[in-house]
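Let's practice the habit of predicting before peeking. Look at the sequence and jot down your guess about where helices and strands might fall. Then scroll down.
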Amino acid sequence: MLQVMPPIRAWLDSIGSPYGGPGHMIDPLAHAHMNLVGGVVLLAMCVTFYLLPIFTGKNIYSIRLVKHTFWWVSTGVYSFYIIQMTFGIWEGLLLHSNPQDMPSVHRFYGPAMAISGTTMAIGFCTFLANVFLTMKSPATHDVNPEQDQPAASSNGKSNTF
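Done guessing? Here is the structure:
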């Protein structure tokens, strides 16, 4: 955790961390979102996908949606982190050198964050849809986590691409 090292902490404090300004984008925003969404929320989603079949006796509706959930949320979280870090450092450097140029840089922040947030939202929606569709599906007693895998053909070979 670089933000606790004295020279880095002093620089972050000089640009507004954690109370506002560009430093706020780095610590606590980027740091907290990486931990909470990137760690805790993905863990909760994985635990849900693991326990839902056990508690309900139903197969997960779509393993493909599980994979989409993981990749959309992970991509969104990492892009959020990179955007926060990039704009925090960039605007922090401008705050010390050319504060009048900050608005010209900050105008890119909103659209970049919208793309990142939308990417995470797609992952959250695929998660919720998969859980909802799993709950609405008929009960099965043989919980098979590989249900989205193609069945073997009559010649014993898998029907994969």
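How did you do? Residues 22-136 form one domain.
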